[in-house]
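The protein record quoted in full:

***
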Amino acid sequence: ENTRFHPEEKDNNPTFVQQLSSLGELCVFDAFAQAHRDHASTTGLVRALPTVLGPLMVQELTALSRITINPARPFVVVMGGAKLTDKIGLLRRLVAGADQLLVGGALANVFLKSRGVDVGLSVVESADVEASGLDPFEAAREITQLAGEKLLLPTDWVAGDDKKYPNVTEIVTLD
């Protein structure tokens, strides 16, 4: 069964970690997209068992090393997704060396809303993330300040999906 269905997973519960670690002798950590989570099946197992990195994790870390140590120029970072709070550490690291930072998708909505732009019914990182101690709008303002003119956000968008919101037809232009 998937560990995410256990409430002890997100709490990194020591008893749950012990139960999971009793199932094996070695942890092969290959979950790059989950590596930032302090959960029982991630950091809990890594602390409880001898651990090696799996091939996908090695591939991701190798790619990140290439772009953070000596990136080819021009170095353009394109970032999307939904949660800025999951990407803030990486953005802090990449923005300094980037020639341009292009932010799109739902991630851009956090930046736009942090500037006071009405994004209508578009997806914006939920307030429950703020309980983790990191305000997504404050994070957007921090990255905006670090990036300066290197940061490019969408200037045109439709304020809704025509299937979900058939009456929304207005296109908003920021320029």
In short: Residues 35 and 42 are 7 Å apart (CA to CA).
